[in-house]
Description:
Low-confidence stretches: 153-163
Mean pLDDT: 80
Strand content: 35-45%
Oligomer: single chain
Strand order of the largest sheet: 1-2-5-8-7-6
Distance between the termini: 86 Å
Amino acid sequence: MSIREDVVVVSRMVENDGKEYEGAINKLNLFLVNMERDSMVKNHAVPEYHGDRAVVPSKVVYLNLYFVLAANFKGGNYVDSLRYLSKAIGFFLDHSFFERTTSPDMPQGIEKLAIDMENMNMQEMNNLWGTIGAKYVPSVLYRLKTVALGGNYSYYQPYVVRLPENSELGVL
């Protein structure tokens, strides 16, 4: 492996104008390709009651993030690209779970992350690279499971209905 600089970058492969992004050349590029709501995780925001108000926590949306790790190496670096991609695949096989105890720099509210390699058939791969607008390079698709977004705020909501002291309940 002859390349001696930062090899892995979080970067797009193609600029908005369709030109190849220079910072993505001779790198392992990690880029987001899809987000979907995890329908298996239910969001139960249970209010807490304080006096005549309910403290309603904000809802949290749980997402699965899909990202591609692509070996975008040019010219005589093709064999190196396969080596780097192979090492990255090995890393994610060995480190498929990240927890706050082992990765203390994880953002607040995220206690653990799970990363799974996803399969794509040739048609799906063709569609993905066509959507990206780049020429195919050796790559692998991963799913980062259940990232929680939201939940960082609460609001007060009145919940007590008070009647005037001399009122009567009944049909008018």
